[in-house]
């Protein structure tokens, strides 16, 4: 990515979270890019996401920033004069707001005490969809933002498995991981239906990928362990026949590329983090009291999703006429 230079006013945006969080924030980042075309846009984000940030085309550079357990990172290593504008897309404050305020920006946009305050200061709604939440914050500050502006341009490289069904059994927390044996059963059923199935995982999920593949009888080029580089993973998702995963980053990447998906939700409602309401994307969820998305055990609502209904949902997307489904987000493609 282009690194910040020294002669343009800067917008510093804080969203130091994961891949799914980054992609859910793309509509807000695009709105900021349009609102401040002459500014240098810098995003405070974990360094592992730099390639994904570049793919969004929304910012000029990154400030490496992360903290354990989705906490608020310190920004004291900001190496430039105070940013003209600082934007808190990380949380509802005050910790994230204060991390930005410590840099003495001329203008601060946040749910917890913007400076200056807009005429109608927005309030934090805990049950609001993540994409809409940040667009509403910007709208209150006179910055129009479209929550549906989610699409990414096609990746510049070919997929390692074009036309395959991509199974991603991992997730940051066990609460959002459907059991490996169930993913394996789905993989077997889809292979019996004539589909190629590949299994992916992050850098620390090799054991999980190996278990799913061993149970499903997959090996060789169908095992994509070790955490693919983002460009390769993005191409895999963009050219997949279907992406099947839990509520995690690959599900958001499927939305960004308009790839059909089946997403399994457990502790968190899809009304908060789910895909746009289009036939291209299916969510499976058992309603109930909200759980802990960072819990150490699979959420009971997630375990309530049966293998048979997952296979049925996947096959509906893979039927010959499934490509005719409308995609309301298509006009947002770059």
Describe the protein's architecture and organization.
This protein has 334 residues and is α/β, with parallel strands linked by helices. It has 2 domains: 10-140, Rossmann fold (3-Layer(aba) Sandwich), CATH 3.40.50.2000; 165-332, Glycogen Phosphorylase B (Rossmann fold, 3-Layer(aba) Sandwich). Helix content is 31%, strand content 13%. The chain is built from 12 helices and 11 strands. The protein has helices at residues 19-24, 26-35, 50-56, 95-101, 130-140, 180-192, 206-216, 230-238, 249-257, 270-273, 300-303, 307-318, and strands at residues 10-14, 40-45, 61-64, 85-88, 107-109, 165-168, 197-200, 223-224, 242-246, 261-264, 281-284. Strands 8-7-6-9-10-11 form a 6-stranded parallel sheet, with helices on both faces. Strands 3-2-1-4-5 form a 5-stranded parallel sheet, with helices on both faces. Helix 2 runs parallel beside helix 5. The longest helix is centred in the middle third of the chain and has 13 residues, at 180-192. The protein is elongated. 46% of the residues are buried. Residues 330-334 have low confidence and may be disordered.
């Amino acid at each position: 990515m282009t690194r910040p230079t020294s002669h343009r006013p800067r917008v510093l945006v804080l969203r130091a979270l994961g891949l799914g969080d980054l992609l859910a924030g793309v509509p807000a980042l695009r709105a900021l890019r349009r609102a401040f075309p002459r500014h240098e846009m810098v995003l405070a984000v974990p360094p592992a996401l730099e390639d994904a940030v570049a793919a969004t085309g929304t910012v000029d550079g990154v400030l490496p920033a992360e903290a354990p357990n989705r906490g608020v990172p310190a920004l004291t290593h900001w190496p430039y004069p105070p940013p003209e504008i600082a934007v808190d897309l990380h949380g509802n404050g005050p910790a994230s707001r204060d991390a930005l305020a410590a840099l003495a920006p001329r203008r601060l946009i946040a749910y917890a005490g913007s400076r200056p305050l807009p005429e109608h200061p927005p309030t934090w709604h805990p049950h609001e969809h993540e994409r809409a939440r940040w667009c509403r914050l910007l709208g209150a500050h006179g910055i129009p933002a479209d929550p549906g502006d989610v699409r990414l341009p096609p990746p510049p490289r070919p997929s390692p498995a074009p036309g395959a069904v991509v199974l991603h059994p991992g997730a940051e927390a066990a609460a959002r991981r459907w059991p490996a044996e169930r993913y394996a059963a789905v993989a077997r059923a889809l292979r019996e239906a004539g589909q190629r199935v590949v299994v992916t995982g992050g850098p620390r999920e090799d054991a999980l990928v190996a278990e799913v593949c061993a149970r499903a009888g997959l090996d060789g080029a169908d095992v994509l362990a070790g955490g693919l580089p983002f460009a390769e993973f993005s191409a895999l998702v963009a050219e997949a026949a279907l992406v099947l995963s839990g509520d995690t980053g690959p599900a958001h990447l499927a939305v960004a590329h308009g790839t059909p998906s089946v997403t399994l939700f457990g502790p968190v409602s899809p009304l908060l983090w789910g895909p746009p309401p289009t036939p291209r994307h299916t969510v499976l969820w058992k309603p109930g009291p909200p759980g802990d998305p960072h819990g150490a055990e699979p959420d009971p609502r997630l375990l309530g999703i049966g293998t048979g209904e997952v296979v049925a949902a996947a096959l509906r997307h893979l039927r010959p006429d499934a490509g005719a489904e409308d995609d309301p987000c298509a006009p947002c493609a770059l």
